[in-house]
Amino acid sequence: MGRIAWSVVSESVTLVTGHGAIGLLDRARLDEAIMAGAGSPVVVDLTRVTLIDAAIARTLRNADGRLARDGLRLIAAGATGQPLEVLEIVGIAKQLRVDLTVAEAIDECRQSVRGPSHTPFDARVHQLVARARAADVSPESCTRMLNEAIEAALPLARTLARQYHGAVETSDDLVQVAALGLVNAVHGYDPSRGNGFLAYAVPTIRGTLRRHLRDHTWALRPSRRVQETRNAASIAWPELAQALGRTPTTQELALRIGADDQQVEEAASAAAGRHGVSLDGTLTMEPGRTWHDVIGAEDGAFERLEHRMVLGPAIAALPAQDRAILALRMGTDLTQAQIGERVGTSQMGVSRSLTRTLNALRASLDLDARPDRTSPADGRAES
Question: I need a surface site. Which of 38, 237, 254, 356 has the fewest CB within 10 A?
Fold first, then answer.
């Protein structure tokens, strides 16, 4: 893993210095170092960098685009060997002026500054918050200075929000969440501690983003333990893959994060619950069919089969005339009078037979039920 440091040189030019092999795991630190100088041009010193990957090249390209929108320069100076080849392959070597030495890059950045000297945003936030906390400042002035501090640090919130762009939430929603974390950071920052605003704001904003993603973006939310295991595994996976030069096994991943194999597998399965799937969505393997076509539903035939098994003996035990009346009533569209003509009884007799029969069948389905119009002694309808 490489080493990255940053400092402000004369005329507020930010110098970011890299050492050794810088790869995927150093991307966030490099981006933070560049953003530490937001509001000033940035020179990235690659003189002592021996190796970079495509992720680092993309980070430099994206940072250059962000600074350019504010009229600022980013120069990657002193690149040679493999870093130079990667930047040329990506197509940004000329754009980042890698042909310049560090001293030449700093001079060019100085010349690119227009108007008053720029102050790094974290230093400006520190000054504003310190003045807002002064005892002789009115509440109105305090609010105004804190708002200015928030506006000065908004690029940091947007940068950190972009790091979670692959999440479920839209980028605009993530920027709003990051901005809320920034507001909390500005209001909670204590200038007297001397650690600098950036060291306090970055973990505060990231914590706000992670809690939001943890609590609000799961279609099927697992337990907190499973979520924490998944987060730890997602961080450890690229580190292991880079160290091993291959895809890590479940056992290696579990050993790295201090969990057992079952917990890692459970966390991997739970990850599918983050994204909901529409029943109208097409199947990957069968484009002509939707999930709705293959997901089963409750089959009422099972319940009907159970009822037939219970009612069969009860119906067989009925008198022959009651069985005939029941069959005609349930299997045909005949009226009670027409059924009476067929079996040789009156319409009233058919009605009483059906009432008596249905009560007896209900009782066979529910042992606790009692026929509401049948005498327990002889099973005949009460008069």
Answer: 237
